Amino acid sequence: MTPGLSPLAARLPGYSVSAGRPWPMGATLEGDGVNFAVFSAHAEAIELCLFSPDGRKELSRLPFRDRDGDIWHMHVGGLTPGTIYGFRAHGPYAPERGHRFNPHKLLLDPYARALEGRLRWSDAVMGYKIGSARGDLSFDTRDSAFAVPKSVVMDTSFTWGNDQAPRTPRSESVIYEAHVKALTQLHPGVDKPLRGSYLALSSDPVIAHLQKLGVTAIELLPVQAFVDDRFLVAKGLRNHWGYNTLSFFAPEPRYMAKGALWEFQTMVRRLHVAGIEVILDVVYNHTAEGDQWGPTLCYRGLDNASYYRLTDGGRHYVNDTGTGNTLNLMHPMVLRMVMDSLRYWVEDCRVDGFRFDLATVLGREPHGFDPNGGFFDAIRQDPVLSRVKLIAEPWDIGPGGYQLGQYPHPFHEWNDQFRDGVRRFWRGDAGLTPDLAKRLLGSAERFDHSGRSATASVNFITAHDGFTLEDLVSFTVKRNWANGEDNRDGHSDNHSDNMGVEGPSDDPGVRAARDLRKRNLLATLFLAQGVPMLLAGDELGHTQGGNNNAYAQDNEVTWLDWAKADTTLVDFVARLAALRRAHPVLRQRRFLHARKRAADGLPDVIWRKPDGSLPSPQDWHDPAFRALGVEIRMAAEGGDSSPDAVMAWFNCGPEVPLVLARPEAWSLVLDTTQPTLAEAPPPRVLPAQSVLMFSARPDMRRAKGETA
Prior knowledge:
Blueprint: E1 16-18, E2 26-30, E3 33-39, E4 45-51, E5 58-63, E6 66-68, E7 71-77, E8 84-90, E9 93-94, E10 99-100, E11 115-116, E12 150-152, E13 175-178, H1 180-184, H2 198-201, H3 204-213, E14 217-220, H4 230-234, H5 261-273, E15 277-282, H6 299-307, E16 310-311, E17 316-317, H7 332-347, E18 353-356, H8 359-362, E19 364-365, E20 368-369, H9 374-381, E21 389-392, E22 412-415, H10 416-427, H11 433-440, H12 444-447, E23 457-460, H13 469-472, H14 508-527, E24 531-535, H15 567-582, E25 605-608, H16 617-620, E26 627-633, E27 645-651, E28 656-657, E29 666-671, E30 685-686, E31 690-696
Helix pairs in contact: 10-11, 14-15
């Protein structure tokens, strides 16, 4: 299958071709043209295909004649920014040995900084013949160029001015998980032509909202270019969440108002000016090409045996991701691509961190998950990447996939045990008070090892995957019918509670109970050690109608309805964030272990019952133990002599008398049953279904060794 010189090669007037160099990877603008470098260990030949400005007509095919190891390279003089191109790779089509080369399929540059056009689902994008008795062993000769996105040569330079990354300390971080379009599509303060875009997300009204909430970082659902799955398109749906990456370097075009990279860069710059970091949810565990029945768009056609983890002699794909394939980060060039991609987003686009989807995949070596595996070692030694925020989703569906607490410093981890334990406590499940105590102290039993800090735990009540906060208190059963999967998708056990009525209700009693439950959940989130993460829209009262897997709902189901915003709840969340900022004891780096402080002889943590006594071992094992107090000071091990102290109470049961030894030493600064309360003396009762927080009065500092 090694080609001769294509007749199209003669159609390149005014351009010169030379060897170029094997670095950097991808298409690099130089003063006199463009240097191209692409990896393939098993190809027999590769061609560069140049297209007309509209991407519709292939003008030239230029064979790579120079190769440095497994890097194919050439320089084409005279090319300029905006040049549209792709690759064709020749080699064996032998799926049973892992090779799926097919030069009839135009391939995206893995390092493309921008894409032209969208994927048009057609049988021509498949490397095999649809309907053939030989299945994926058959060979399709139709040209796919008309149906696939193409690569664009980009000038990524941008006038950053005096841009400065906020570099918010981890202990001061408040993360806001959001979707570019869902957050902005219905915002009345955003110009209609900009809604749903990067520019909308960084508009003045959106930034003002984030600042009011006390958000320090916005964590964006995937914005690396992705595709709409064929089965979704057939049902008239779209890939809303974006967990189906096609290009690891190109921003998703659907969020661009003007189709330019500077829009993304402008978003980052404006958020930085506002003191808000940008964290990207990234998907380096798989690609949009799926399993052996998927399309040939890029990696499969360039070097299937290198880019993917294969099984059964090479014909089939390891599927630890549940999406059909798994990227092979054990291959040095695949690992290099991922590292180059991460550095690109930090250096050229100035993002401040990453949340790694299904991160266990990234650390899986031949012997299993390894916190000292190649990917983690590469990240931690990197002078650029080791300084940004790194967050792991610590699970996948592969063997030994649940690895909460096992990631190396400086990784944070999404803590699903916080989510589930706090939900169950407030739902009233018996015996959950001891679990609540663990979650309030940063889940030390999981994270307090190997020099890790209490900020390792990213605490959350809700995330994009699951019920919104409003739905968590309104539904006991998921309602995912709109996804077209007969309600089989999504989790069935959500630890939710409808407060007596399934679905929406105008009953004042039900409504009041739901609002109180939401405030209790949010207060628990902000008063716990670790890093709080708020799902965008929860502060507004956003509902998805009970859909807990809205990955395909790019519509009013997921778009935040700002016109119906619960402004009282917005103000309450802002107060929680302000309290957290005002009290360093709520956001410590060191774990708390009830050890005595040298400064005053007081333990850094004191647990209490409402009658003022300390819980006994029997109390901790009592299923009816539902009201817990905790007094917190700066950690004993840190040597911080700060007099700052808070006392918080969490009561998922009925009203009970509250006894404080020195009530005059405390001020009530939070009562979820009175959301607008600013400050008051301590009450004599702990209200039913409530969170209370007291702040130690500066003028009533205790004598050494004295407790409340």
